[in-house]
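Run log, item B.
One chain of 189 residues. Sequence copied directly from the ordering sheet:
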Amino acid sequence: MRNLIYSINLSLDGCCDHTKFGGEDEEVYEYFTQLMQEADAAIYGRITYQLMVPYWPDVAKNNSGGSKAVNEFAHALDSIENTLVFSKTLENTDRKNTRIVRSNLQDEILKLKQQPGKNILIDGVTLTSQILGQGLIDEYRIIVHPVIVGTGRRLFEEVTMQERIPLKLVESRPFRSGAIALRYITQRP
């Protein structure tokens, strides 16, 4: 079965609004580029999808990212073979290999995990919060940035769970900027 990997950037105080971190960190872009190269499917909610597209495909098309690391990230994101956007309001998308899904999130993810292929990435806050307690996420890749922002949306602030999810830290990687990449796997009985 394919792995579902949740990835996100956070401030030290748990804010997941990437606009509050400031500056570009080439190592962070390189980290996420590698993660995307190990995947062939991505799952987004409407808000995250509309933050990513058309911005990153345009960067890939024009190599306008300003650095090699940013451009490589854009190309890796643009080359994901299968993108699912869960939305009740998005009418259409003109991106190849992208489909809007209105059916049951859990059922769609289970189907996708059972198909042959590489890893599946899921991003964003609201969509991930909807499946957090269902045992579908296999890995959490979190980059904690060395900044306290004080305000902004917090990771999983809307989640109410019946049971805790035990995780095992399998990798930690510090970057020159002071950011640190944490990789956790879900521990299952």
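Observations after the first pass:
- Residues 4-186 form a domain with the Dihydrofolate Reductase, subunit A fold (CATH 3.40.430.10).
- DSSP finds six helices and eight strands in the chain.
Flagged for discussion on Thursday.
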